[in-house]
Amino acid sequence: MQNKLSFHQSSVSLDIVGLPDYSNNENKDQISIISQWKLNIVNKPLIEGKIEHLGPIMNAFYIYSNLLIKNEIPIYESELIDIKADNLHIHNIVLKSSKPNVKPLILKIGNSLLSDTINCFDQLNESSKVRIKKTGFSKNIPKKVRIGVFNKENIINFVIPPFIAIFTLILLSSAFIYFHNPIENKEKIEQINSK
Questions:
Q1: Phi, psi at residue 91, to the nearest 5°?
Q2: CB of 65 within 8 A of CB of 75?
Q3: Are 53 and 80 in contact (CB under 8 A)?
């Protein structure tokens, strides 16, 4: 009896079917040996395949969305999947079959469906009930995309604004302390009261 787990986000669902690896003493509800997966996007044809297809497709969506976020040219092409922007709101996906004489599946999805699909992939990655071998998942990700968060420009944009805010706060506090003399103020209050 195979286990089935489903990950849902609005208009998209991802089903993973497989077995636990009993040689590693895994729980009967665990999935480590994936036999099948299905990606169901509302009003689109069903996407399904073997485990060796899941990694490259997830990589493609992650790399493509990363390019969108970084305002770079959003095009991803591989032997299995091509994704490119039709415009700011529509994304063309071409899924190529590994079987001969099978026409590619062409989909057009909007930003919300793209976001929902990536959310389902995120749920799969974060699930404690599914173990995916990571070997084939990140080898095709370009180095620039993998370390994009840590590039010099992002670090400067992250560090400079808080530094300026703290420096300004210290400067204003110092000026206030420098011009404020509590003894002098106490003497003025005593003079006013004595009159």
A1: -125, 130
A2: no
A3: yes
Those residues with Cβ within 8 angstroms of residue 41's Cβ, 6 or more apart along the chain or in another chain: 11, 12, 47, 107, 109, 113, 116, 117
pLDDT at 152 > cutoff 90 = no
Q: For 102-128, write each residue's pLDDT tens digit.
A: 888 999 999 999 999 999 999 998 988
120 phi and psi angles, rounded to 5 deg = -65, -40
Q: How far is CA 37 from CA 17, 31, 54, in A?
A: 6, 12, 8
Residue 88: is its pLDDT beyond 50? yes
Other residues' Cβ atoms within 10 Å of the Cβ of residue 122: 14
Compute φ and ψ for 82, nearest 5 degrees: -120, 135
How many residues appear in the chain? 195
Three-class DSSP category at 24: helix
